[in-house]
TrEMBL record:
Domain Shikimate dehydrogenase substrate binding N-terminal: 13-94
Record CDD domains: NAD_bind_Shikimate_DH
Location of the THIF-type NAD/FAD binding fold domain: 121-163
Pathway note: Metabolic intermediate biosynthesis; chorismate biosynthesis; chorismate from D-erythrose 4-phosphate and phosphoenolpyruvate: step 4/7
Keywords: Amino-acid biosynthesis, Aromatic amino acid biosynthesis, Oxidoreductase, Plasmid
Lineage, top ranks: Bacteria, Pseudomonadati, Pseudomonadota, Alphaproteobacteria, Hyphomicrobiales
Protein's UniProt name: Shikimate dehydrogenase
Length: 276
């Protein structure tokens, strides 16, 4: 039930038809008696800058979830951003501080890393390869750096994109070894597909499967199918792995902490979510 005391969390993006966050947050709020609601709000890019500022003038606004195509443009509209957001170059959560400032953070990578750790894989001191240096790949790189990996290898078909991420990582983590230009997975403890490859039937595999060791932990970000062809192939090699939707469910506890709500576990969220 939405009342005059309900805290509003806007889910900002365009278009809104595929939004899944309300189907996870709202059942959780209802079950736990939290007087808050996530509301999808479709905002076209040309209106976004003005709309975000006006949105946070509402007396009952508590925060916003940010999704495509606004994650990058949000950065210039905030008063304060986390290191993760700065390294990623994008933001997917905004809250209003008690003094009226807009504070932004990025949790895609946090969700990925929490999932890896919960599955028992050590991140600190690890060597990790990320294929894809776009928004989600950059966010994962930021969180892996924050969690203490020793070496990050970045590959992207657009070398300029990969180099820009390397520069941001070196700025905030000067001791971190960061290399770009190769997608060879040999010798890495963690390998991540952060490309869209696997979303469409017939896509090539993003990484040479024959060069992945069975001891390597493999992560996927594609969510259209739980076991993508890439995960199917690494599973056959004996690799431990993480499916794309794990990143989604694992980041929500971090969001809840950011918004100062009672937090929970990814397993609990999966159990009460209103979609399959």
């Amino acid at each position: 039930m939405i009342t005059g005391t309900t805290k509003l969390i806007a889910h900002l993006g365009y278009p809104t038809e595929s939004f899944k966050a309300p189907l996870i947050y709202n059942p959780y709020f209802e079950k736990n008696g939290i007087d808050a609601v996530v509301v999808p709000m479709g905002c076209r890019p040309e209106d976004y800058s003005a709309f975000l500022k006006l949105l946070f003038r509402l007396s009952n606004i508590h925060g916003a979830l940010i999704t495509m195509p606004h994650k990058i443009s949000t950065m210039a509209l905030l008063d304060e951003t986390s290191t993760n957001a700065k390294v990623a170059g994008s933001c997917n959560a905004v809250r209003l501080s008690s003094d009226g400032r807009l504070i932004g953070d990025m949790f895609d990578g946090e969700g990925f890393v929490r999932g890896v750790l919960r599955k028992g894989k050590k991140v600190e001191g690890a060597h990790a390869l990320i294929a894809g240096a776009g928004g989600v790949g950059s966010a994962i790189a930021a969180s892996l750096a924050q969690s203490g990996v020793d070496h990050l290898a970045i590959f992207d078909a657009n070398e300029t994109t990969a180099t820009a991420l390397q520069d941001r990582l070196k700025k905030y983590y000067p001791q971190l070894e960061v290399t770009v230009g190769s997608a060879d997975p040999e010798g890495f403890d963690i390998v991540v597909n952060a490309t869209p490859l696997g979303m469409r039937r017939g896509d090539p595999l993003p990484i040479d499967i024959d060069r992945i060791s069975p001891s390597t932990f493999v992560g996927e970000v594609v969510m259209t199918k739980e076991i993508t062809p890439f995960l199917e192939a690494v599973r056959a090699r004996g690799c431990a792995f993480q499916v794309g939707t794990d990143m989604l469910f694992e980041q929500i506890p971090a969001y809840l902490e950011f918004f100062e709500f009672p937090t929970t576990t990814a397993d609990n969220l999966r159990a009460i979510a209103k979609f399959g």
